[in-house]
Specification:
The chain has 15 helices and 16 strands. The protein has helices at residues 10-34, 92-97, 100-109, 126-134, 136-151, 165-179, 240-251, 274-277, 303-311, 343-350, 360-371, 375-382, 388-408, 432-440, 456-477, and strands at 41-49, 54-62, 73-79, 119-124, 156-162, 191-195, 199-205, 218-223, 226-236, 258-261, 269-273, 294-299, 338-342, 419-421, 424-425, 428-429. The chain has a six-stranded mixed β-sheet. The protein has a five-stranded mixed β-sheet with strand order 3-2-1-4-5, sandwiched between helices. A three-stranded mixed β-sheet has the order 10-12-11. The protein starts with 9 loop residues before the first helix and ends in a 15-residue tail after the last helix. 37% of the residues are buried. Bound molecules: adenosine-5'-triphosphate (ATP). The site of adenosine-5'-triphosphate has 21 residues, from helix 4, helix 7 and helix 10. This is Ectonucleoside triphosphate diphosphohydrolase 1. GO terms for molecular function: apyrase activity; ATP binding; GDP phosphatase activity; ribonucleoside triphosphate phosphatase activity; UDP phosphatase activity. It is found in: Membrane, Caveola; Membrane. It is a multi-pass membrane protein.
């Protein structure tokens, strides 16, 4: 004789099956509905037409999230061969042609079906600022050639223009803080230090900054619901190439035929041409009246003397404000951490001096012994993997960087460690281009976007738990119809 299981009644079996199907259906719908879609991207292209070279950056972001919530990241970069577009003043059409290779690369990287909707921008910085000062019509012609070349590609061309120094500084700051997620989260921001070939920028938020003291250094933003009052300044001619010209001009103002330069290694010697040295608005006014065609440039390798030469390029006496950096430029007290990029990084990385926790005096001593190293030895060690021009200039550039930071911007041995030398943040280059594109595409909203209260996984778990609970409740509510278990075994 078998005992009949009271649960094996048609009603409970039907309820169980329906309940299980309902739970599976509910969870499946929740998972499918909230499953991240197969990623589709949108793209934006920015050309950074710098004084020393042009670089192309391609950015991408999830297509369904261009409404301010998706993360924009750098997908690709391309370094244009040759010099910056301002060097083509005498043959402007070549400025346009120089961009062809990188633009063709962009055509391959951005999927064809996205070409026509991909915005393409070109921003020119200090090299074109200088050309514009020196020769307006040449600068216009370079832009015409560049525009013509860019319009021939299938992207949505949005124009080419010269960025002001203030914009360059501010967009660099936006890039750094966007990539670090500081803007969205409303965290304390990082200041931006950018060293280019022809200009240098400093940008930071200082709570002690009274805008009325120097309104031209202020930029205000409302980003993700937070207000920022940014201090920013760009020093034209204080990029590392132009400042080297100024240092050489200082040492050749009497028109000698030989100079012994403390900023170059002992044993270094080259012949330089007076006309090409003084061919820049940064130094043209100081050209010696009587000078030979060339001069012999010899290295001495003396850091202390080099620092004196560099210091002489900063005027730190005249200041009509409560506080100045140099050349009579207002600067509020430094505040917070700083990210130093472009040539700051290239130079300090080569010199192995990116660790700012090392005492500033030790950093200077290390640089001093590098500068004193004979040129032959330096070439033997590095010439196989570093351009000779860069190699010859690292002693000068390192000295300039330390002098600019300490004597120019007033970093002290205590605050020096607030600086971090950076190249990339989360895979994207630090520089003004990303901030520029985010601004022009309105990708950073003034107010914080609404975000779903729960992440996807949390949402699915809650739905599952609730479904199971409901099912148990349903079973319990059917208690009256549950088959009773009698103590007497049923006889089948
Ligand atoms: N590996 C390197 N080592 C040393 N110097 C470098 C290296 N790569 C680039 N540079 C130099 O660093 C400087 C800054 O380069 P960057 O491309 O940031 O400036 P840029 O955009 O041309 O200048 P600007 O912003 O003033 O117009 C330039 O003088 C460039 O020649």
């Amino acid at each position: 004789m078998k005992e009949k299981n009271p649960w094996y009644t048609p009603l409970t079996i039907i309820i169980t099956v329906i309940g299980v199907i309902a739970i599976v259906a509910l969870v499946t719908v929740a998972v499918l509905q909230n499953r991240p879609l197969l990623q589709k991207y949108k793209y934006g292209i920015v050309l950074d037409a710098g004084s020393s070279h042009t670089a192309l950056y391609i950015y991408q972001w999830p297509a369904e999230k261009d409404n301010n919530t998706g993360r924009v990241e750098q997908k690709h970069s391309c370094k244009v061969t040759g010099k910056g577009i301002s060097s083509y003043a005498a043959q402007p059409e070549k400025a346009g042609m120089s961009l062809t290779e990188c633009m063709q690369e962009a055509e391959m990287v951005v999927p064809a079906k996205r070409h026509s909707e991909t915005p393409l921008y070109l921003g020119a910085t200090a090299g074109m600022r200088l050309l514009n000062i020196e020769n307006r019509s040449a600068s216009d012609q370079v832009f015409q050639a560049v525009e013509k070349a860019l319009q021939s590609f299938p992207f949505s061309y949005q124009g080419a223009r010269i960025l002001s120094g203030q914009e360059e500084g501010a967009f660099g700051w936006v890039t750094v803080n966007y990539l670090d997620d500081r803007l969205k989260q409303g965290l304390e921001t990082t200041g931006a230090l950018d060293l280019g070939g022809a200009s240098t920028q400093i940008s930071f938020v200082s709570h002690d900054y009274d805008i009325s003291e120097s309104p031209s250094n202020s930029m205000t933003f409302r980003l993700y619901g937070n207000d920022y009052n940014l201090y920013t300044h760009s020093f034209l001619c204080y990029g590392k190439d132009q400042v080297l010209r100024m240092a050489l001009a200082k040492q050749t103002q009497l028109g000698p035929s030989t100079i012994l330069d403390p900023c170059f290694h002992p044993g270094y010697t080259t012949t330089r041409n007076y006309s090409s040295l003084y061919d820049s608005p940064c130094v043209s006014g100081r050209r010696p009246r009587e000078a030979p065609t060339n001069f012999s440039h010899k290295g001495e390798g003396n850091f202390t003397k080099c620092q004196e030469v560099v210091k002489s390029l900063f005027n730190t006496t005249a200041c009509k404000y409560s506080k100045c950096s140099f050349n009579g430029v207002f600067q509020p007290p430094l505040q917070g951490p700083f990210g130093a990029f472009s040539a700051y990084y290239y130079v300090m990385n080569f010199l192995n001096l990116t660790d700012t926790s090392i005492h500033l005096e030790t950093v200077k001593n290390n640089l001093a012994s590098y500068c004193a190293t004979p040129w032959n030895q330096i070439k033997q060690m590095h010439l196989s993997n570093v351009k000779e021009k860069y190699l010859a200039e690292y002693c000068f550039s390192g000295t300039y960087i330390l002098t600019l930071l300490t004597e120019g911007y007033n970093f002290t041995k205590e605050t020096y460690s607030n600086i971090k030398f950076i190249k990339k943040i989360k895979g994207s280059d630090a520089g003004w281009t990303l901030g520029y594109m985010l601004n022009l595409t309105n990708m950073i909203p003034a107010e914080a976007p609404d975000s779903p209260p729960l992440p996807h996984a949390g949402y699915v778990s809650i739905v599952t738990v609730i479904a199971v609970l409901l099912f148990i409740l349903l079973i319990l509510s059917l208690r009256p119809v549950w088959p009773r278990c009698s103590k007497q075994p049923q006889i089948v």
